[in-house]
Design goal:
single chain; alpha/beta; Rossmann fold; seven-stranded parallel sheet; 36% helix
């Protein structure tokens, strides 16, 4: 019998048809699923059009409370991370990733990835304030840091050992 694939908990927040979701789905479609499988942790208010495809490809889907309700959110994630014994949690939530990374830390997940996809944007006053307030806390619970570009990496400059992910032409 073959070994089971490594399961990576992908934290996406709202899963509709946006940019981050499309990038994660492209990675998911391209990986060797006999070696690595993604499980998706998605805000329960999502339209989640990718669910059927994810499940067909062997991934699991978990609807969780919104991070707008941080205590319920962290409690639900911690319970699921422990139950499924994840070795890797990959948060795609930028600075809001502090909440799932805290849940992963509580669940003793050894690899906790904070992945930044953006910066502060004009016209997002309250959201920008929250991003700036939470940015320093991301380093408390993450073990690895990624960004999708130079600007996103520089914006998260409070993070140590930030790695820049560059698209590979062979993908």
């Amino acid at each position: 019998m073959g070994q089971s694939p490594l399961r990576v908990a992908q934290i996406t927040g709202i899963m509709n048809n946006g940019g981050v979701e499309a990038v994660v789905m492209n990675y998911y479609r391209a990986i060797d699923k006999s070696r690595v499988q993604f499980d998706f942790f998605v805000d329960e208010t999502s339209s989640f059009p990718q669910r059927e495809e994810i499940e067909r490809l062997g991934g699991r889907c978990f609807l969780v409370p919104s991070y707008a309700h941080p205590f319920r959110y962290v409690r639900a994630l911690r319970k699921l991370f422990r139950k499924h014994r994840y070795k890797i949690v990959h948060s795609q939530l930028n600075t809001m990733g502090v909440f799932p990374l805290f849940a992963a830390w509580l669940a003793r997940v050894p690899v906790r990835i904070c992945h930044n996809h953006s910066t502060a944007h004009r016209g997002e006053g309250k959201k920008n304030l929250m991003k700036k307030l939470l940015r320093p806390f991301s380093r408390l619970f993450a073990t690895h840091y990624f960004a999708c570009g130079d600007t996103a990496a520089r914006w998260m400059d409070s993070m140590r050992s930030l790695t820049l992910l560059k698209p590979q032409s062979s993908w």
